[in-house]
Backbone:
C-alpha cells in the first residue's frame, strides 16, 4: 500500500455550520487544486482515496480534525506536479498551500507522512475532548448538575432508531466533565455563560455534545461546542493521531507519535 | 448598516442545512458599502441549493461588483423552518455576504425562472419588512425589480414588482444602475418614487407595470396601454449580439455546501432555433449566439484550475448543436484544459447516434445516466410540436447507448399537447417498450425510465392560444400510461403532479387579476409551491373563487384569434403573425426546419433587432437529424432491423 499523508486541521467560525460531507467535498477540490497525486479507487466510479476520521456534528467547531490522503507516488520522489514546478514542496509549505486552497475557517495545523501500517482514523480514535459553552443556569447550579451526573451510576436517554425506542446509558462514555474559566475574549455569548470541558468516549456509544447538555437539564442550552482533541488509547497510554506541532515530520505510525501530556 | 449575524447565529443550531445561510462561497465578493454605490440585493426566490448555481444571477453579481458605482450581495428563500425562526426572533431577510437586512439595500432584484415561485416573491418582500404591493412603497423603500424568463408575462406579479427586465441582462443592468445612481444622488427628502419609475421605463427592455392601464369588459381583457408618454406602447426584450464580449461568470461561485449542478458551468451558446413549439426558452432567446470555441476552452481551463471541480457542464439549449462541440469535448477529455481527469456533462442532448458516441467519450470517468427528450409519443405528435426526432433517430441513439455500456436511459415526454389523441399518449409507452427491447440485446437488465410532464402553454410561443388540459384529463392520460407500462419489465414510468401543472398554467398565462389570487395563496401560507410537500391546490382554488376567477377562464379555454393577450404589450422579438402561422402549421402537423442553417422565416427576432445568428459552422452538425435535411414524410417508418427478433441487427 502506498504512502499516506495525514493532515490535522481546524474548522472554526461560520464554516462550522457546514456538514461533514461538505468538508469532504472542500478537501477533494482543494487536493485537486494542489496538484498532489492522490491515488484513486479502482472500478466503475473511481474516487480519490481520502479517509476522514470521526464525523464532527454540524454546528460544532474543532481544532483537531483529521484526514488521511493516499498518494499515488511517494512524496519524497520528485515528479512534475503543478503548481509546484518539477518537485514536491516540503510538508511545511504544503500545509500552508493547502490552507490557501481551503475556505476561510478551515486551516491545516499539522501534517505528516504515516506508514502503510497505520490503521484507520475512524477505528483508532477512542475519545474526544470538548469545550462547551452553555447558557441557562448559574455557575453554582451548573456545578451541582455536573456532580449529579458524575455521581449517577447510569444516565439513561431514550433514542429512536429505525422506528423503535432504545434506552441508552451515556454514563460510561462520559470520561470526565468539569467547569473551567475560559481565557479573556474567547467567549461567544458573554458573561452569562458557563464553560465545560468534557472527554467523551466513542465506545461503547459515541456521545454528542448536545446529548450531554440535554442530560444536564432541559433548561441548559448549548451555545457553542468545540472539539479540542481526538485521542487514541493504546496499552494504557493516550496519543493524538497527529499532535498540533507535528508539522512536516514524517512518522512511521501514529503509535510512534509524540506522547500526549 | 449593521450585520445581523449575531442574531442569525443562534437560530442556525435549530434549522436544517444551516450552511445555506452563512455565505462564504469561493468567488463571492463581500462588498464595502459606501454612499456612492447603488446597493443591489440579488434574490433567487427558492432555496439556496436550487438558486446558488443560477448562472444569470451570478453574471449580474459579477458585472455589478465590477462597477465602481454599484455593489451586489445575494440572498435566497430561507426554508420554512428558518423563516419561522427569523420571524419569531424579529430577524428580517438578510444577505449572505455581509448579513445585512434586505431593507438596507437600494434594490431588491428577483430572478424569475419558474412560475411556482411567485408566492415566495411576495413572502420575501414581506420578510424584508417592505410592503408587498408596489403602490404602498415610498421612496425610502428599496425598488423591487425582476428579470428572467417569466418576465415575458409578468402580469401576475405586476402589483408587487416595480419594474421587470426583458431579455439578456448584461447590458441593461448597467443602464438601470445609471438611472438608480442618478435618482439616489438627489437629497433623500426630494426623491420621488414616480420619477424613478419613469426613469426606469425610459430604459429599453424595462417594463414598469404601474405606468400602464389595463382594461376589461366584463371578464374579457380588452387592452393594456401606457398611462404616460414616459412608457413605451410596447416593451421589447434586450439581446446581446455577441456572447464573446461577455465571458461571465469569470469567478463562478463554489458553494461550501451541496447544491444542484455542483460543477463548473460554461455557457457555450445562447438561443436556440430548433423551433420546438412548446418551448418558451427556444422562442424568447433567439437568435443563436455561439461563444468562440477558443474562449470556451480558456474559460474551462481557468475555471477548473480556480475551482478544483472535476466536472464541467457545457450549458445551452441543445448543447450538441454547438458548432465546435466535438473539438471542445476532445480538448477537455484529452487534457488540453487542465491536468486532471475531468468529466463533461451535456445537460441537453440531441437524439442521434453521433451524440451518444460523444456522450460515451466524455463519460469515461463517471457514467450515470443518459436522457433523451422525444417529447411526443408519435411522429404525428412530434410534427405538431416541431420536435423532429424520427423513431429511427431514437432507436439508433438508444441502441448506441446500450451498446456503449449504458444500462439506464431516461426518456422525457409531454402529455396534454395540442391535437393530442389517446394513440399519441399510448405511443409513449410503445416507444419506451421498444427501447427496453433494444436494451435487452445488450444487457440482461436494461432500464428505461419514461418521465412524463404535463404541458403548460407559455406566453410568446405558438401554443400561447392553446387551452391547457384539465387536471382530470391529465390524470386520465397518466392512468392510460400506467396501464400500458405496467406489464413491461424494465420500464419505469414517472409523472409530474397534474395539479401542480394546472397551477403553473395559472401563473404562466394569467393577467393582472392573478395578482390578488397569488396574494391570497401567500397570505394563506402557500409558499414553496414548487415543492411537492408544500404544494396545495385547495389554496389556489379557494383564492380563485374569492376573486371570481376560474381555472376554466385562465387556463383551460382556447384563446380567440383576435383576443388581447395579457403580454401583447411585451415582445420577445417574435411577430404575433409569425406565432399565429406557426400555430396553424402545428394544428396541421406541418414541420419547419431550423433557420440557423436554412432560410429565414421572418419571426422577427433578428431582423427587428438588427442582429443575426452567430454560428461558427453554416452546416448542421454531424448526424444532421431533427428537421435539417431529412425526409420529414417518413419519420414514423421503423427500420426492420429493430422490429425483428433479438439477435438480428
Residues:
Amino acid at each position: 500500500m502506498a504512502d499516506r499523508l495525514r493532515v490535522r486541521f481546524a474548522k472554526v467560525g461560520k464554516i462550522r455550520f457546514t456538514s461533514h460531507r461538505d468538508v469532504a467535498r472542500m478537501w477533494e477540490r482543494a487536493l485537486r487544486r494542489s496538484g498532489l497525486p492522490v491515488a484513486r479507487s479502482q472500478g466503475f466510479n473511481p474516487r480519490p482515496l481520502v479517509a476522514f476520521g470521526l464525523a464532527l456534528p454540524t454546528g460544532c467547531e474543532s481544532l483537531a480534525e483529521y484526514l488521511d490522503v493516499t498518494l499515488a507516488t511517494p512524496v519524497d520522489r520528485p515528479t512534475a506536479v503543478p503548481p509546484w514546478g518539477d518537485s514536491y514542496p516540503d510538508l511545511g509549505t504544503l500545509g500552508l498551500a493547502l490552507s490557501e486552497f481551503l475556505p476561510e475557517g478551515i486551516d491545516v495545523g499539522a501534517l505528516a507522512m504515516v506508514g502503510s501500517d497505520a490503521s484507520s482514523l475512524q477505528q483508532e480514535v477512542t475519545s474526544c475532548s470538548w469545550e462547551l459553552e452553555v447558557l441557562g443556569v448559574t455557575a453554582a447550579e451548573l456545578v451541582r448538575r455536573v456532580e449529579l451526573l458524575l455521581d449517577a451510576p447510569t444516565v439513561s436517554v431514550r433514542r429512536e432508531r429505525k422506528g423503535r425506542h432504545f434506552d441508552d446509558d451515556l454514563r460510561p462514555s462520559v470520561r470526565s466533565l468539569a467547569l473551567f474559566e475560559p481565557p479573556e475574549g474567547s467567549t461567544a455569548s458573554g458573561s452569562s455563560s458557563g464553560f465545560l470541558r468534557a472527554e467523551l468516549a466513542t465506545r461503547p456509544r459515541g456521545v454528542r455534545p448536545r446529548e450531554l447538555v440535554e442530560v444536564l437539564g432541559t433548561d441548559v442550552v448549548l451555545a457553542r461546542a468545540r472539539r479540542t482533541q481526538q485521542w487514541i488509547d493504546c496499552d494504557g497510554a493516550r496519543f493524538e493521531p497527529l499532535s498540533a506541532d507535528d508539522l512536516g515530520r514524517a512518522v512511521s505510525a501514529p503509535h510512534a507519535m509524540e506522547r500526549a501530556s | 448598516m449593521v450585520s445581523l449575524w449575531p442574531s442569525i447565529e443562534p437560530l442556525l443550531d435549530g434549522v436544517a442545512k444551516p450552511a445555506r445561510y452563512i455565505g462564504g462561497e469561493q468567488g463571492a465578493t463581500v462588498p464595502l458599502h459606501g454612499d456612492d454605490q447603488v446597493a443591489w440585493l440579488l434574490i433567487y426566490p427558492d432555496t439556496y441549493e436550487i438558486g446558488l448555481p443560477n448562472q444569470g444571477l451570478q453574471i449580474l453579481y459579477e458585472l455589478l461588483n465590477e462597477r465602481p458605482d454599484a455593489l451586489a450581495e445575494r440572498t435566497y428563500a430561507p426554508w420554512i423552518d428558518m423563516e419561522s425562526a427569523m420571524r419569531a426572533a424579529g430577524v428580517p431577510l438578510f444577505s449572505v455576504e455581509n448579513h445585512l437586512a434586505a431593507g438596507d439595500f437600494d434594490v431588491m432584484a428577483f430572478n424569475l425562472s419558474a412560475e411556482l415561485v411567485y408566492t415566495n416573491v411576495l413572502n420575501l418582500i414581506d420578510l424584508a419588512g417592505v410592503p408587498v404591493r408596489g403602490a404602498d412603497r415610498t421612496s425610502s423603500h428599496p425598488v423591487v425589480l425582476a428579470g428572467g424568463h417569466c418576465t415575458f408575462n409578468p402580469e401576475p406579479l405586476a402589483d408587487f414588482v416595480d419594474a421587470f427586465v426583458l431579455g439578456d441582462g448584461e447590458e441593461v443592468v448597467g443602464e438601470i444602475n445609471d438611472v438608480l445612481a442618478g435618482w439616489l444622488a438627489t437629497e433623500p427628502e426630494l426623491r420621488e418614487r414616480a420619477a424613478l419609475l419613469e426613469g426606469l421605463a425610459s430604459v429599453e427592455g424595462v417594463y414598469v407595470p404601474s405606468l400602464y392601464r389595463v382594461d376589461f369588459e366584463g371578464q374579457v381583457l380588452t387592452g393594456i396601454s401606457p398611462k404616460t408618454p414616459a412608457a413605451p406602447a410596447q416593451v421589447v426584450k434586450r439581446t446581446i449580439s455577441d456572447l464573446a464580449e461577455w465571458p461571465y461568470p469569470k469567478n463562478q461561485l463554489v458553494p461550501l455546501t451541496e447544491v444542484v449542478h455542483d460543477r463548473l458551468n460554461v455557457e457555450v451558446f445562447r438561443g436556440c432555433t430548433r423551433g420546438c413549439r412548446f418551448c418558451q426558452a427556444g422562442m424568447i432567446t433567439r437568435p443563436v449566439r455561439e461563444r468562440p470555441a477558443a474562449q470556451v476552452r480558456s474559460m474551462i481551463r481557468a475555471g477548473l484550475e480556480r475551482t478544483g471541480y472535476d466536472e464541467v457542464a457545457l450549458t445551452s439549449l441543445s448543447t450538441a448543436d454547438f458548432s465546435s462541440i466535438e473539438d471542445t469535448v476532445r480538448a477537455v477529455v484529452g487534457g488540453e484544459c487542465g491536468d486532471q481527469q475531468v468529466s463533461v456533462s451535456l445537460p441537453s442532448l440531441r437524439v442521434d447516434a453521433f451524440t451518444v458516441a460523444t456522450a460515451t467519450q466524455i463519460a469515461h470517468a463517471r457514467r450515470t445516466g443518459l436522457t433523451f427528450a422525444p417529447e411526443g409519443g408519435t411522429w404525428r405528435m412530434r410534427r405538431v410540436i416541431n420536435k423532429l426526432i424520427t423513431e429511427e433517430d431514437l432507436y439508433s441513439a438508444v441502441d448506441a447507448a446500450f451498446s456503449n455500456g449504458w444500462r439506464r436511459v431516461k426518456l422525457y415526454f409531454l402529455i396534454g399537447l395540442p391535437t393530442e389523441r389517446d394513440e399519441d399518449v399510448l405511443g409513449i409507452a410503445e416507444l419506451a417498450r421498444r427501447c427496453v427491447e433494444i436494451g435487452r440485446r445488450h444487457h440482461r437488465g436494461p432500464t428505461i425510465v419514461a418521465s412524463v410532464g404535463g404541458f403548460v402553454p407559455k406566453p410568446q410561443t405558438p401554443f400561447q392560444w392553446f387551452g391547457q388540459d384539465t387536471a382530470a384529463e391529465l390524470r386520465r392520460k397518466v392512468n392510460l400510461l400506467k396501464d400500458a407500462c405496467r406489464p413491461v419489465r424494465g420500464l419505469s414510468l414517472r409523472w409530474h403532479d397534474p395539479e401542480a401543472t394546472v397551477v403553473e398554467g395559472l401563473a404562466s398565462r394569467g393577467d393582472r387579476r392573478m395578482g390578488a389570487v397569488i396574494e391570497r395563496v401567500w397570505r394563506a401560507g402557500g409558499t414553496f409551491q414548487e415543492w411537492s410537500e408544500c404544494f396545495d391546490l385547495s389554496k389556489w382554488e379557494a383564492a380563485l373563487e374569492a376573486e371570481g376567477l376560474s381555472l376554466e377562464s385562465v387556463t383551460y379555454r382556447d384563446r380567440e384569434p383576435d383576443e388581447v393577450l395579457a403580454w401583447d404589450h411585451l415582445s420577445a422579438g417574435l411577430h404575433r403573425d409569425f406565432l399565429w402561422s406557426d400555430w396553424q402549421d402545428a394544428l396541421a402537423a406541418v414541420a419547419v426546419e431550423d433557420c440557423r442553417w436554412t432560410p429565414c422565416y421572418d419571426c422577427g427576432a433578428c431582423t427587428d433587432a438588427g442582429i443575426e445568428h452567430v454560428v461558427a459552422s453554416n452546416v448542421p452538425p454531424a448526424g444532421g437529424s431533427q428537421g435539417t435535411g431529412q425526409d420529414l414524410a417518413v419519420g414514423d417508418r421503423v427500420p426492420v432491423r429493430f422490429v425483428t427478433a433479438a439477435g438480428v441487427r
Notes: Confidence is low (pLDDT under 50) at residues 638-649 of chain B. The two ends of chain B are 71 Å apart (CA to CA).
